[in-house]
Amino acid sequence: MRSYIEQADFFKGNDPEKIAEEFGTPLYVYNEDIIRDRMRRVANVITKYPYRANYSCKTNTNLDILKIALSVGVNADAMSEGEMRMLLKAGFPPERIFYVCNNVSADEMRFAIDNGIPISLDSLDQLRLFGEINRGGRCAVRINPGVGAGHHEKVVTAGKKTKFGIAEEDIDKIFDIAAEHDLKIVGINQHVGSQFLDATPFLAAVDNLLRIAMKFGDLEFIDFGGGYGIPYHKLDDEKEFDMEHFSKEFTEKLDRFIPQYGSAPLFKSEPGRYCVAEGGVILGRVHSIKQNSGIKYIGTDVGMNVLVRPSMYDSWHDIEVISNGHVVYRDKDELEKVTVCGNICESGDVLCKDREMPKIADNDLICVLDAGAYGYSMCSSYNTRLRPAEVMICSDGSVKLIRRRETFEDMFAFY
Ligand SMILES: Cc1ncc(COP(=O)(O)O)c(C=O)c1O
Predict the structure, then answer these.
(1) pLDDT at 163 > cutoff 90
(2) In three state form, how does the secondary structure of 155-206 look?
(3) Do residues 383 and 411 touch, judged by C-beta distance below 8 A?
């Protein structure tokens, strides 16, 4: 692909240079149409049986994006009180939120209980605590199905070496604790990992959870987790996740399960990245270019405080170059190897190493692709830098500020 931002008409005719000048850099820019499209796709994965996609909002809790999820008709997952509060503020009714917590205090659990938000417990201890503060309550349990998968060790969220879920061999203990506190186990959930471009590991995990579900009678829902991947190497024509094939295979598994189980509970999944990653980019400014021991460093304002994925997970993000408002194409004879880095005082503050890029000049813009998921939601004020602003390219082509840049007054407000 020559240019994603041109092919997708990401800026909808707006000049990215003008947007960068008006709102400053670094800047998160989202495209409403792309986000709506991906949310609609996940909402329709299963159409034959009762099914709900839960947008996993850890990926991006911007209120405008949550409102898109709400309007498309997907539900949402929350991992914390903060995420529950954001979802409520965006207008989600409590019953459309699912609190999938991990090692939380009684107070945080109580927030969910008091607000009528369905909850899943992730350990026997947490189930016991829930029973103690909410005798007779309803809840789900997160199962660790014993196998995980994912693009990086740090995003594998099931299997013998992760902190998540209750092991299958402890299922009898779930029933004991439930009986002791008069709890009703209404659902089971899992999340095995992230960024599957090939559906095989997810589908294997579906089989596994359906097998485990047979040990629970009378479930109201079974939630298979998230993890659908997106093509981070799209400039090299990486193929996208084949939703059609996935839906077909997923449905066939349910076709076989329902007669055995005797009923069709509500089936759910929890995609996060797939919904928003491709609908977000970061615009950053090049402030310095230098050679150190034969390596050419492109110094920008997109530090690891703005996007931590490359330094945390060694993640790849395609980067396009914009000079005077125009994309500089990656023509083979014009490429040069460079290392693009940020402005944070860490040698790991690198967006990409030794990557072949088109010629870049001081003051050019870089456009970091696929940054809508785990971008702003993981950004920090490290080095006491201000968190960036976020703007939306709306369906009608207008550019809307959807979260202002942090200010130094915001920083001082904690004191
Ligand atoms: C419990 C749970 N559900 C859903 C997700 C969303 O995963 P993804 O963004 O890969 O779809 C995660 C991510 O780690 C998770 O931990």
Answers:
(1) no
(2) HCCCCCCCCCCEEHHHHHHHHHHHHHHCCEEEEEECCCCCCECCCHHHHHHH
(3) no
As a residue count, the chain comes to 415
Residues 6+ away with beta carbon under 8 Å from 256: none
**pLDDT interval class at 159 (50, 70, 90):** low
* Among the ranges given (58-67, 70-79, 181-190, 322-331), the one the predictor scored with the smallest mean pLDDT: 322-331
State the distance from the centre of ligand 1 to the C-alpha of 272, rounded, in angstroms.
6
- What's residue 147's pLDDT? 66
Task: Give me the domains of the chain, ranges plus CATH numbers.
Answer: 4-28+277-412 (2.40.37.10), 44-271 (3.20.20.10)
Name the burial class of residue 396, with classes exposed (0-12), middle (13-18) and buried (19+) by CB atoms within 10 angstroms of its CB: exposed
The answer to whether the CB of 402 falls within 8 A of the CB of 60 is no
Distance CA 210, CA 162 (A): 21
Which of 194, 222, 274 has most ligand 1 atoms within 8 Å of CB, for mutation? 194
Taking the centre of ligand 1 as the mean of its atom positions, its distance from the CA of residue 351, in whole angstroms, is 23
Residue identifier of the C-alpha nearest atom 5 of ligand 1: 226
SS3 state at 288? strand
